[in-house]
Amino acid sequence: MGASNLLTKAQRRKAHNSLFGASIGRGAGRIINALVQGLSRMSINPNLLTVIGVSINVLCGLMFAFGHFFWAGIILIVANVFDMLDGSVARLTGRVTRFGGFLDSSLDRLSDMAVFVGLLIFYARDTEFHSTLYVFLAGAAMVGSVLVSYASARAESLIPKCDVGFLRRPERVVLLIIGALSTHPGSGSHFANRMPAVLWILAVGSYWTFAYRMYHTWSELQRADAASAPDTRTASLTAHDASHQTTAAAVGDEAAPEAEAASNTSDERHNHPPEIAHRAPVSR
User: Fold this and answer.
1) Distances in Å between the alpha carbon of 68 and those of 37, 109, 110, 123, 162?
2) Which of 61, 209, 77 is nearest to 138 (CA)?
3) Percent of the chain residues topping a pLDDT of 90
4) pTM of this prediction?
5) b/e map of 129-163 (b: 16 or more CB within 10 Å)?
6) Three-class secondary structure assignment of 106-160
7) Who is most buried in 59, 154, 225, 239, counting CB within 10 A?
8) pLDDT of the residue at 263
9) CA–CA distance from 146 to each of 54, 141, 195 (Å)?
10) Out of 2-16, 70-84, 99-113, which region has the weakest mean confidence (pLDDT)?
């Protein structure tokens, strides 16, 4: 009976947590939808929202550089709200363009690098928080994040989709927000000052994701080549047969005049026998 009650309590707790998480998701969705509707009615250009978002990310990088990690985390949340809004507004107002997608993707890379440069500056400064290791980790994470995005963009010119790996841009942003909001110098809490751990995860995870995308692209191309190999072989054999038939026809066309000429010569000899020479009598 006690075990049954314990199981029931665990199930109720799990259902409550699930309901609580779903409620937060629905609430956030309503807020985002309201913002999208309002911006759409104001006829705001989606590209302007993209530029505002990257500008806020640059401000976030400055906050990191000066050591204001908590406010940098808050600003990073606001910046990524704008990053979610631009695409939704573009779809709702029918302003989806190829240039808009290119601008958004390009400025996302600038946003990522602005944040990491801010962390590089903070840990490189001559303060009590100076750490060559953390400077290296921030730099490695910055390069890794660019490689992950580049690998995806380049691969999708060869295969339909390449968004594999667990450390994509949304995950990187969430980790940076956690690291920023948890930073409280002097706090003895086990959950405080988690930015160094976040940098380790970003540095290692980004290169793992990059390598996995390389492998995924290679395997997809191998599969595509294997699938197209029989068709290529069939096409090659067909082309070879056609070439052989063409050559045979050409040889036949060249031999026909020769045969005709030989036939004409034979007829001519038959109709006109060779003349017999008559020797004149010799005068003595």
Assistant:
1) 33, 23, 21, 13, 36
2) 61
3) 51
4) 0.72
5) eebeebbebbbbbbbbbbbbbebbeebeeeeeebe
6) HHHHHHHHHHHHHHHHHHHCCCCCCCHHHHHHHHHHHHHHHHHHHHHHHHCCCCC
7) 59
8) 53
9) 16, 9, 20
10) 2-16
